[in-house]
Amino acid sequence: MLERGQEWATDPHRVVFGSQVNYSRKMFWFRPVAQWPMVLPFPMAPYAGVMEVSNERGIDVACAAGLGGGSLVYTCATVTPPQKHFERIFPAGITYREMTSIWYPKAAAMLRPSVMPQDIYASAPFTHSRAWDEHVGRAGYEPVKMPSTFNWEVVRQELLGTVRASASAGESDFGCSNGAKNSLTVNYLPAARATGHVTVQTLCEVESIGLGRPGKYTVTVRHIDANGSLLEKIHYSCTWLFVCAGTLNTNRLLVAARDSGKLPALNDSVGVGFGDNGDQFIGYGYVGEGGPSQAAPSASTIFTEDFVLPVRAENWHLMQLGQSPGIITLAMTADPDPVNRASFSYDASTGRVTLSDWSGKSDAAAQAASSLIDKVMNANSNVVPAAIRWPCPFTPHPLGGCQVGKATDLYGRLKGYRGLYAVDGSLIPGNVGGANPSFTITALAERCIADIIARKG
Q1: How far apart are the first and last CA of the chain?
Q2: Which of 183, 251, 350, 358 is most open to solvent, judged by the fewest CB atoms within 10 Å of its CB?
């Protein structure tokens, strides 16, 4: 298993990662200047940090860099999309009944999500969570407790002061230093290593993939140090190759391999159908207490079909608000429309793969999210009647490009080759259907690998 990033060891008392108020070069994957919503663009020494921000045409895309991938930096929401919206987006051969009876439960057995306990919900750092629930309730919505993979026992220890405050102080986007997240580093990865059949090599960035001698694939790897210096270039040969580099980098590798002639039989669907899961971020202030900090875990969620697109909304935080009474809402629309997708293209002169123009793709999602927040603000007399919309298209949920059933069969086998697989967020058709994508990505991966094992390839 090759991982481009580092293996990060958490510590109950020491800062491991940086944050929006505690800047560190460990935050970003080789950027000379930081870039993140509501973070000043401070200069920094390029480093193998935990988050890549790629400035694509029309949209900034965030993706993780580290052993454990997106589970290091995600918000731990473990949500199943509503049935009818799942069925509008996924191919008919992947049924909602199959997913909810077999694959979501299998993923949940490993991830072990649970809702926020009442004592944590009632604590001071979650004042903004309770305020959001009241606000959406007055607007006619009933918030539902949301399954999460935050480690509530660690959060309790934070509240007691026995470990350094991380999740309860708003740390999440760049990792929780004290291990407050049940990331893949505490479930799937230890289980894989325990088999004795898995070797993990970190700081190994795959440069290219292609065909080798008959029946083999070649993988060219840059082994680097944390400062980016090349230590060695390694060439691997393998019979089965799983490209699971996350949506952005899986597309980069596969589109480059096809269009450069290294894997010419990959079909035209590779690189097509990228989407941002309908992500929108909107903040507003209210009159009242904000709590001693803006805690990171989200307690609840609502889902509505009242607007131009169906919307899931969740209460999040803005760490920089500190004790101020403010609320951030993450909205994700259910959008099956292929018009609201983009494609990746290869530039032979530079060897780079970039996303085609995204302009206008998220307009309907922005309209739906804004309509929801306007309704919430109008229903609450203690809300400051002005919302802050993030002005730049940005997504931490890149999806698609190797859509299941199009670029691959229904189990992640890339068409045109035997023994070549994509089993990550790139399989999702650009949108999950009104949910955070991590749970569906995990469940779909379980479904794929079970069939690949059963059929021996």
Answers
A1: 18
A2: 350
